[in-house]
Structures are given as structure tokens and as C-alpha cells.
Design goal:
heterodimer; A: mainly alpha; 2 domains; 0% strand; B: alpha/beta; 4-stranded antiparallel sheet; 10 strands; 36% helix
Chain lengths: 452, 224
């Protein structure tokens, strides 16, 4: 296929394609801006604390303009990891946008195949469609970084800034980011344009992988006993691995959950189970992201409990900044997770109009269909958030005590923060169902039954 | 009391008048075929009778329920309890297995899922659909989907069976067998059947043919 033909086909000329391109660009821009923040963090002059148990005299000098969590080499790694994980959730959202409208694109690809397009043509078409959006996202990452730089830098008090002054390095990083974003988006687009026929791994494999990742999260940090920087690095690696495994296990978990729901006696479970199976991919990704949000919230909550117990000044050492950042990161991750599943639900409503209209024709009213959407959302989000809170909160508490036997930990704030986070999630789920109301109503329109 | 009573029913999609001042009745045990050229209002008449479309003008009473005054939820309840609907192209729910699609009317009505699925298995046997009950609709042929849609329409024992081109995707023998099953099962239970079709063989199965043209009844003929 000639480049001009590919370009003609790739131009987003319908509303759904334009929305898809805009969402890919937005997700890439957010992720890119956060990557630039991560790189800038490493330009803050930092010092390393002496190893635990060391009796040697150390003189520590740090730049008083910055918050303690970024001038301390060990906590800076943790902050950078957290920022990168939030960038990862933005990429998950962008990936969901790349996958949206797959039914429409599949029909188009089938039509192109019957007229002589090769699999390579389809891959190139998929790549071009998203590469442009990725490049735009890369360009927008600059302004996003400027905004974040202002919020985390000049807008902070003079002694608790998190980012250094702007420098030519920022410009160079941005210039490298634009082609990288375009290439990443193109790769994702090419993959979405390829019909993969891989045999899925069995549920037992995924379960084993999850157990190994979880065990790694608790054992890896133990390897760095005595060296705080190594310990934080290992902890960051372990958490990142756990979340990557959670994202990879998400879809099989959602499929398993859907099967269990379908076997139950309650009609709502049975019918919602069918819908969850159809949305296993995005539901699994949302579950992985919410697990990460729960994990972050759990750790931040226990740290807050420890600070309150020690009656430490919250403002000192950047503790408050760290906790606020963790809460904001968890909130943003949760929002990205919910946006992922909302996007998938909208896509489902657009592509499955006929099925929904048929269901309504048989006797399912709008209220029942909304109840099914609510049930499906709850099934995909509540368990991951609660698991994340428990693993993060109780796990971090256990690790703290293991690292310093003289210490103890306070997990009681989890009893307040946990139910509050759950209530917010339920509220958000109800909001999503409300948001989808008009589209659901459109989907059950009898006119949709007239389509073959 | 008639199973279906339509008096002065009109319906428009925007500026397009689909039905104009249509009046008809269908008696218990009666089989009526609605025929006519494409775009004459056959499917609209069916959807209004099923309560899928909201009544715009006129009066529609089906199985003792006045649909003109019923809101969306009430009409949905009415469909679950009184109507068996075979839609054009089968129109199965893609996320549910064939068995659950057939069980759907019972599930929506609040039956236990085990009972509903057992009933669905029975009806899948009776319509002659020889596939694994857990198969998803995407893996069925058009004809198989049509057979499943027939089983779904019968599973709750409807007072009124409404079928839009019920045999369109089936070969002659399978089509005849499904039509016989739909009609015999409903009529033997005291219900009525309204068939919408272009196919003369389907129309010939009816007691009466109503021919529509440009949204009005052109003529009615008793066939038996």
C-alpha cells in the first residue's frame, strides 16, 4: 500500500477516531510530563545517609532550598519510582485509548483485507494512526512539565521545593521525548492492528506469578539490610515488578472473576459476569492500576500513623509533602484506572448497541442495565483497591518492624483511610454509571435492532 | 377479550410517517401474518405491539395491558411477562452464552439461574440447536442464532409471540420446523402469534394475512 493511501486511511475523519487520537495524545502528554519530572528530580543535589549501625562520624550538607524527600538519595529513588508509576497509569489510559473502537477497526481491516491489503499494510496503518497522536502527546509533554515544575517548584515554600530550576537538560530531554513518544505510540498502534492468536496462559501460571511477585516485594528489601539506599532501590524495584505483574494478571483475573459470577445464582451477577468477560482486558488494567493506588495509599497511611505516634512535626523533613504527594499520586492513579474502565465501557456501549437493544426488547429496563454496569464496575475495582490497601499498609508496617526491631508501627489510620477510600471509589463508580446514562439510553434505542 | 387491540395507531420517525391510523385485533389462538414491501411499517407495528417503541398516538392494549399509558419500566415488565419476541437477525446478547441468552427472559423475571438454565437447555433441544450451550453467539451461524432466538422467545411461555422474519436465515426444512414449533407451542397454550415476513411460506402458515402499504392496512385476508 502506498504511503499516500495509508495516510488517507489513517486520517481520523470520524468523531470516534478523533476522540481516540485526542485521548492517546493526552495520555502520552501526561506520561511524558511525569517522565520529565523524574529526570529533573535527579538534578537535585542529594546526599546519602550513613549505613544503619554505622558509628563513624558523618557530616551531611544538603541544599536547604529543597524538601528532605528529594535531597536524601534513598527517598529520592522512592519518589522517582512513585512518579514513574503514575506515568505508567497514564500510559495504561493511553493504551486503552489505542484499543478503543477495535470492533469498528476490525471491520475496516476485514474490508481492506478482502480488497488486497496485507497484514503488513494493516500494521503500518495502525502504527501511523497512533504515531501522530503520540508525537503530539510528546510535544504537549513540555507544557505539562512546565505546569508540574511550577506546582512542585516555585509554587512551594522556599525550603521544600521538589524540582530544580529549569535548565537546558530539560529541553534536551523534551526533544528526545517527542520521537520516543511517537515510536511508542506507533508500536502500540501496530500491535493493535495485528490479529494475535496466542494461546493464553492458564490461570495457575498467573497465580504463581502473582505469588512470586508478592513474595519478592517482601523479600527483596531484606537483601539490602544495612544499606538504606540499596534497600529503597530494591523496594522500588519490587513494587514496580508487583504492579507490572498485577497489570499482566489483570485480564485473566477479570475473566476468572467473570466466570465465578456467571456460576452464581443471582441474575445480576450472572448477567454482569458476561459483560465483565467481554471487558476483561480493560477491567484487568483498571484493577492493576487500582491495586497500585491502594498500595500507595496503604503505605502513606502507615507512614502518617507512625509520624502521628512519634508526634513528629509534620512539616519537618518533607514528611507532609511526601504524604500529600503520595495521596495525590494514589488519587491520580485511581482516576486513571477509573477512566480506563469508563473508556472501555463507552466503547462497549458503542459497539454492542445491538445486544443491549435486544436485551431491552426482551424486558431489561434502563435501571436494570445500570445495575449491571454498577455491579461490573464494583467487581473490577473494589477487591484490587482493598487488596492494595492491605498489602501496602500491613506489608509496609511489617517491613518497617523487620528492618528496625526496636520500632513499632501504627496501622490504625488504615481503619479510617480504608473505608474513606472505599466510599470514594463507590461514589466514583456511581458517578461513572450516571455519566454513561445517556449513552446507555442511546444504546437501547429500538432503532439499533434494525442493524444486521 | 382480544389478545391485541390497536385503535387508530400512528407512528413517525422524525418527519417519516411509518404508520398511519392503523386499527386491528388479534384473538386468542389466532395466527396473523403481517406482510408488505420494505419500509411499509411492518417492523414498527411489531415493535409497538411489543411495547418496545413508545406509543405516539392511538391506543394499544396487549394481553390486558394498556401500553399507551405505561412508562419504560412498566413496558419492560410487560414484555418479560407476556411477550415472546423473535427479532430480525436473531439479535442475541453477544456477552452471554447461548444457554444464558435463551434463559434471559426467565432470569430477568427473577427465576433461579439453575432453573432458568435447565429450562433453556430443554428449549435448545426442542428447537434442534446442536451446539455446546456455553458457546458464545459470535461462534454461531446466522441460522443457529435464529434457532436460539426462537428458543428464547418460547422459554417463558408467552401470551403473544411476535416474530420478525423468523426464518430468514434458515434453510427451508429448518425454517418450517422452527415456525411449526413457534406456532404450535404458543397456540396450544392459548396464546396468539403475529408473524412479520416477506416469505409467502411463512404467511401461508397464518390464519389471516394483513397487508400493509405505506403505513396503512391495504387489505386483510382470512387464509384457512
Amino acid at each position: 500500500m502506498k504511503p499516500a493511501t495509508l495516510w488517507l486511511l489513517a486520517v481520523p475523519n470520524v468523531r470516534a477516531s478523533r476522540t481516540r487520537a485526542a485521548l492517546v495524545a493526552m495520555g502520552t502528554a501526561a506520561a511524558g510530563g511525569l517522565v520529565l519530572v523524574t529526570l529533573a528530580l535527579f538534578r537535585v543535589p542529594a546526599f546519602a545517609l550513613p549505613p544503619r549501625g554505622s558509628t563513624a562520624n558523618y557530616s551531611i550538607s544538603y541544599d536547604p532550598r529543597y524538601a528532605g524527600i528529594v535531597t536524601s538519595a534513598e527517598t529520592r529513588i522512592g519518589v522517582a519510582t512513585a512518579v514513574l508509576l503514575v506515568a505508567g497509569t497514564a500510559l495504561v489510559l493511553a493504551w486503552q485509548a489505542v484499543s478503543s473502537g477495535s470492533a469498528r477497526r476490525h471491520r475496516r481491516d476485514q474490508a481492506l483485507t478482502t480488497t488486497g491489503a496485507t497484514p503488513g499494510d494493516l500494521r503500518r496503518l495502525g502504527a501511523i494512526e497512533t504515531a501522530v497522536a503520540g508525537a503530539v502527546g510528546g510535544l504537549l509533554a513540555g507544557p505539562v512539565y512546565l505546569l508540574l515544575w511550577f506546582v512542585l517548584g516555585p509554587a512551594q515554600p522556599a525550603t521544600s521545593r521538589l524540582l530544580p530550576a529549569l535548565a537546558p537538560a530539560d529541553l534536551i530531554a523534551w526533544a528526545c521525548l517527542v520521537p520516543a513518544s511517537a515510536a511508542l505510540a506507533a508500536a502500540a498502534g501496530a500491535r493493535s492492528g495485528t490479529q494475535l492468536h496466542r494461546r493464553p496462559l492458564s490461570g495457575w501460571w498467573w497465580l504463581a506469578l502473582a505469588i512470586v511477585a508478592l513474595a519478592g516485594m517482601f523479600t527483596l528489601p531484606q537483601l539490602g539490610q544495612g544499606d538504606r539506599q540499596l534497600q529503597v532501590t530494591l523496594m522500588s524495584v519490587a513494587v514496580t515488578l508487583l504492579l507490572l505483574v498485577a497489570l499482566a494478571c489483570g485480564a485473566p483475573w477479570a475473566r476468572g472473576k467473570a466466570s465465578r459470577m456467571s456460576r452464581r445464582g443471582r441474575t445480576t451477577d450472572l448477567l454482569a459476569g458476561g459483560g465483565l468477560r467481554a471487558l476483561a482486558g480493560p477491567a484487568g488494567r483498571a484493577a492493576g492500576v487500582l491495586l497500585g493506588a491502594g498500595l500507595t495509599t496503604g503505605v502513606a497511611t502507615v507512614i502518617l500513623g507512625n509520624i502521628l505516634r512519634q508526634a513528629t512535626d509534620l512539616g519537618s523533613g518533607g514528611h507532609l509533602t511526601g504524604i500529600v504527594l503520595a495521596a495525590v499520586a494514589a488519587g491520580l492513579a485511581a482516576l486513571a484506572g477509573l477512566a480506563t474502565i469508563t473508556l472501555a465501557a463507552v466503547d462497549d456501549l458503542l459497539t454492542n448497541r445491538r445486544g443491549l437493544a435486544a436485551m431491552a426488547a426482551i424486558g431489561a429496563d434502563l435501571a436494570l442495565l445500570q445495575a449491571l454496569q454498577r455491579r461490573r464496575l464494583r467487581a473490577a475495582t473494589i477487591a484490587p483497591l482493598v487488596s492494595g490497601l492491605l498489602i501496602g499498609g500491613l506489608g509496609y508496617g511489617a517491613l518497617s518492624v523487620a528492618g528496625e526491631p526496636a520500632a513499632s508501627t501504627d496501622a490504625w489510620p488504615l481503619l479510617i483511610v480504608g473505608p474513606a477510600a472505599l466510599a470514594l471509589l463507590l461514589l466514583a463508580n456511581a458517578g461513572i454509571v450516571r455519566l454513561l446514562r445517556s449513552r446507555t439510553r442511546e444504546a437501547i434505542d429500538p432503532a439499533n435492532l434494525r442493524v444486521a | 377479550m382480544s389478545t391485541v387491540q390497536l385503535s387508530g395507531v400512528s407512528h413517525a420517525y422524525g418527519r417519516t410517517q411509518a404508520l398511519s391510523d392503523v386499527s386491528l385485533t388479534v384473538e386468542p389462538g389466532e395466527v396473523v401474518a403481517v406482510t408488505g414491501p420494505s419500509g411499509c411499517g411492518k417492523s414498527t407495528l411489531l415493535m409497538l405491539t411489543a411495547g418496545v417503541l413508545r406509543t405516539q398516538s392511538g391506543r394499544i392494549v396487549v394481553a390486558g395491558t394498556d401500553l399507551a399509558g405505561a412508562d419504560d419500566a412498566a413496558r419492560a415488565r410487560f414484555r418479560r411477562r407476556a411477550i415472546g419476541l423473535v427479532l430480525q437477525f436473531g439479535q442475541l446478547v453477544p456477552d452471554l452464552s447461548v444457554r444464558d441468552n435463551v434463559a434471559l427472559p426467565l432470569l430477568l423475571e427473577g427465576h433461579r439461574s439453575a432453573d432458568a438454565r435447565a429450562a433453556a437447555d430443554g428449549w435448545l433441544d426442542r428447537v434442534g440447536l446442536d451446539v455446546e450451550p456455553d458457546t458464545l453467539p459470535a461462534d454461531l451461524s446466522g441460522g443457529q442464532a435464529q434457532l436460539a432466538a426462537g428458543a428464547r422467545a418460547l422459554v417463558a411461555g408467552p401470551q403473544l409471540l411476535l416474530a420478525d422474519e423468523p426464518t430468514a436465515s434458515l434453510d427451508t426444512n429448518s425454517g418450517r420446523a422452527l415456525l411449526d414449533l413457534l406456532v404450535k407451542t404458543t397456540v396450544q397454550a392459548g396464546g396468539s402469534v403475529v408473524l412479520v415476513s416477506h416469505d409467502n411460506a411463512v404467511a401461508a402458515r397464518a390464519d389471516r394475512e394483513i397487508r400493509l402499504r405505506r403505513g396503512t392496512i391495504a387489505h386483510q385476508v382470512a387464509l384457512s
